[in-house]
Design brief:
Number of helices of chain B: 4
CATH class of one domain in chain B: Alpha Beta
Helix content of chain B: 10-25%
InterPro entries (chain A): CARBOXYPEPT_ZN_1, CARBOXYPEPT_ZN_2, CPA_M14_CPD, M14A-like_propep, M14A_act_pep, Peptidase_M14
Order of helices and strands of chain A: HEHEEHEHEEEHHEHHEEHEHHEH
Number of strands of chain A: 12
Number of domains of chain A: 2
Order of helices and strands of chain B: HEHEEEEHHEEEEE
Main location (chain A): secreted
CATH architecture of one domain in chain B: Roll
Radius of gyration of chain A: 22 Å
Radius of gyration of chain B: 20 Å
Distance between the termini of chain B: 57 Å
CATH topology of one domain in chain B: Nuclear Transport Factor 2, Chain: A
Keywords (chain A): Carboxypeptidase, Disulfide bond, Hydrolase, Metal-binding, Metalloprotease, Protease, Secreted, Signal, Zinc
CATH superfamily of the largest domain in chain A: Zn peptidases
Strand order of the largest sheet of chain B: 1-2-3-4-5
Largest sheet of chain A: 8 strands, mixed
Shape of chain A: globular
Shape of chain B: globular
Largest interface: A-B, 48 and 38 residues
Strand order of the largest sheet of chain A: 5-6-8-7-9-12-10-11
Cofactor (chain A): Zn(2+)
Strand content of chain B: 25-35%
Number of strands of chain B: 10
Oligomer: heterodimer
CATH architecture of the largest domain in chain A: 3-Layer(aba) Sandwich
Strand content of chain A: 15-25%
GO molecular function, one term (chain A): zinc ion binding
Distance between the termini of chain A: 68 Å
């Protein structure tokens, strides 16, 4: 067939490294009649293109969602246009969302994918809710990741952790007992717009992608935008700054979505935020050098967690309050969480200490996630045993 | 249990009675300048309060500055060192002038692709006196380190790197080392090491008591042939400054030959402030001799 040759010529070399999350797009294709269904079937079944149907062909006038790997984008677009098939790019670049969907589908009794809001550029914000129990508002743990988009080890660790939770539930006594008592909410991509931007335009983008009126600079630092000494020291009022706090607290819709969800739930006991890099495990406060009322307990737990983490590969973390361990930072997530009654509030700055920094090689993802898991478990076990 | 903050010290040897002018300095001034084990790094010492003695952050700052300077002066891309652990230190602060830090720290060999190998790092020890001048770059540094690599081995490795560089096709069309996924092609390692060496000069000059830098990525490379045998190397790096989280592009031009002092010229884009930082240096045994190049 003419179109097969046409597409074949555009494909070039084989697709490699399907482990990458990046560059893929989801096409939502409208099929209006049998003829169009047949054309689409041929496209989808073509081996070269490695297309993956998310929502399948069933009847007419129902859109079909197809995941198209980045290498096939041009070819698929050309084909659809030449055949007069209507399509829209549904979600840019989020195989990580597909993976979340898979996890929820594989373990429906344990996991649900929940939409908690949307980003500035209207991407969905999805969390995975791990819950073994009925009953409203069980005490809960919030695991936050990817708020700074360039810190790729954060999103990667989060998605690995999701898989770890489901595979270890009812095998590992620790996570099993944690889940018997509490729910876990995991947000792997707290800044989806930034994440896409790091994949397509600028690998070192940190902030959101919100527009700043009157400035050519884009975005605010989502970890300076929380309502905890907002616009205090350790943040900037310059939209061009990497630590621009935004026009007001919760101005960033990505932050507001989390705040609203947590406040509505009302029973979170633990908030952990994953970042990179520096190998630090910190607790409040960032906005001031004052000692948090629970500093002593938090320090003890953090030290135990760092020790557990180090037991895997010898990776050493420094422990302490944010302000003196790294730098003053106002409007941060864990300070907000702590000042809003979530006692067990911690920030992880994951690997490494500067050799690769944000550009941590892929072969360190699993070792990082494995050691971090022990640290997370230590904290969650303590929360489980010290519910208040 | 040691009190978290010690009472203001009695008149001490060193610059006159300091008065706190900024939150950071205020915190530092409440601590006596003692030789103290810089807060235990591991999580295994519960008896030690986290911030006993001199703040670890300032000592780390000083150690990093000293190491950048050391790497630059050593002029050896195959013998680069990174900070392993701060061991002890003391500091004197004068709000008008700046601060002086004595620090002892251990180092290990910089070898990105073999992070997981034990014993490869081999710890060396350095002691340094670092003087940060208020608001001014170029901390004054006096640093000595124990030898980590045998001199002959280092010369051999430098020469090997030199030959690898010379063999690379010119012009080099390199985009991004490491790539966005953190990978460095083995045949591109010499370029990265040499870029790191040149960047050390830049990072030394730019480090202050509050700013410190990491080399994030090499984004463009050109190597020019010269009439002599030197490596003439022109490139752009992205530096990551930790306290502001800014990414700073710097254009660096260096000239290198194994065993000879490194010559560096650079121009960094300061995105936040209107001034731009730039500098020129030729490494030599005589300290702080600025020379045209």
């Amino acid at each position: 067939m003419r179109w097969t040759l046409f597409i074949g010529a555009l494909i070039g070399s084989s697709i490699c490294d399907r482990e990458k999350f990046f560059g893929d797009q989801v096409f939502r294709i409208n099929v209006r009649n049998g003829d169009e269904i047949s054309k689409l079937s041929q496209l989808v079944n073509s081996n070269n293109l490695k297309l993956d149907v998310w929502k399948s062909l069933s009847t007419f006038n129902r859109p079909v969602d197809v995941l198209v790997p980045s290498v096939s984008l041009q070819a698929v677009k050309s084909f659809l246009r030449s055949q007069g098939l209507e399509y829209a790019v549904a979600i840019e670049d989020l195989q990580i969302y597909h993976e979340m969907d898979n996890i929820a589908a594989d373990f429906p009794d344990l996991v649900r994918r929940v939409k908690i809001g949307h980003s500035f550029e209207n991407r969905p914000m999805y969390v995975l809710k791990f819950s073994t129990g009925e009953g409203a508002r069980r005490p809960a743990i919030w695991l936050n990741a990817g708020i700074h988009s360039r810190e790729w080890i954060s999103q990667a660790t989060a998605i690995w952790t999701a898989r770890k939770i489901v595979s270890d539930y009812q095998r590992d006594p620790a996570i099993t007992s944690i889940l018997e008592k509490m729910d876990i909410f995991l947000l792997p991509v707290a800044n989806p717009d930034g994440y896409v931007y790091t994949q397509t335009q600028n690998r070192l983008w940190r902030k959101t992608r919100s527009l700043n009126p009157g400035s050519s600079c884009v975005g605010a630092d989502p970890n300076r935008n929380w309502n905890a000494s907002f616009a205090g020291k350790g943040a900037s009022d310059n939209p061009c700054s990497e630590v621009y706090h935004g026009p007001h607290a919760n101005s960033e819709v990505e932050v507001k979505s989390v705040v609203d969800f947590i406040q509505k739930h009302g029973n979170f006991k633990c908030f952990i935020d994953l970042h990179s890099y520096s190998q630090l495990l910190m607790y409040p406060y960032g906005y001031s050098a004052k000692k948090a009322p629970d500093a002593k307990e938090l320090d003890k737990v953090a030290r135990r967690a760092a020790k557990a983490l180090a037991s895997v590969s010898g990776t050493e973390y420094q422990v302490g309050p944010t302000c003196t361990t790294v730098y003053p930072a106002s409007g941060s997530s864990i300070d907000w969480a702590y000042d809003n009654g979530i006692k067990f509030a911690f920030t992880f700055e994951l690997r490494d200490t500067g050799t690769y920094g944000f550009l941590l090689p892929a072969n360190q993802i699993i070792p990082t996630a494995e050691e971090t898991w022990l640290g997370l478990k230590t904290i969650m076990e303590h929360v489980r045993d010290n519910l208040y | 249990m040691q009190p978290r903050r010690q009472p203001p010290p009695a008149p001490r040897s060193g610059p006159g009675n300091p008065r706190p002018t900024a939150p950071l300095l205020a915190l530092l001034l409440l601590l006596a300048p003692v030789v103290a084990p810089a807060g235990s790094r591991s999580a295994e010492d519960p008896a030690q309060p986290e911030d006993a003695g001199v703040p670890r952050r300032l000592l780390q700052q000083a150690a990093r500055a000293a190491l950048h300077f050391f790497n630059f002066r050593a002029g050896s891309p195959s013998a680069l060192r990174v900070l392993a652990e701060v061991q002890e230190g003391r500091a004197w602060i004068n709000p008008k002038e700046g601060c002086k830090v004595d620090v002892v720290f251990s180092t290990e060999r910089y070898k990105p692709e073999s992070l997981l190998q034990e014993g490869e790092g081999r710890l060396g020890k350095c002691s340094a006196r670092v003087v940060f001048k208020n608001q001014k770059p170029r901390p004054a540094i006096n640093v000595t380190c124990t030898r980590l690599i045998e001199k002959k081995k280092r010369q051999q490795e430098d020469y090997l790197l030199y030959k690898q560089m010379k063999q690379l096709k010119n012009p080099l069309e390199i985009v991004s080392i490491p790539d966005n996924h953190g990978h460095i092609d083995p045949y591109l390692r010499p370029i990265w090491d040499l870029a790191f060496l040149g960047s050390s000069y830049v990072m030394w000059e730019m480090t202050t008591q509050v700013s410190h830098y990491y080399l994030a990525q090499l984004t463009s490379v050109r190597q020019w042939k010269t009439n002599d045998d030197t490596i003439d190397f022109d490139y752009t790096v992205l530096l990551h400054e930790l306290s502001t989280q800014e990414i700073i592009p710097c254009h660096i031009h260096l000239v290198w030959y194994p065993g000879k002092p490194l010559k560096v010229k650079y121009h960094c884009q300061e995105l936040q402030t209107p001034e731009e930082a730039s500098g020129t240096e030729e490494g030599s045994a005589v300290p702080t001799e600025l020379s045209n190049f």
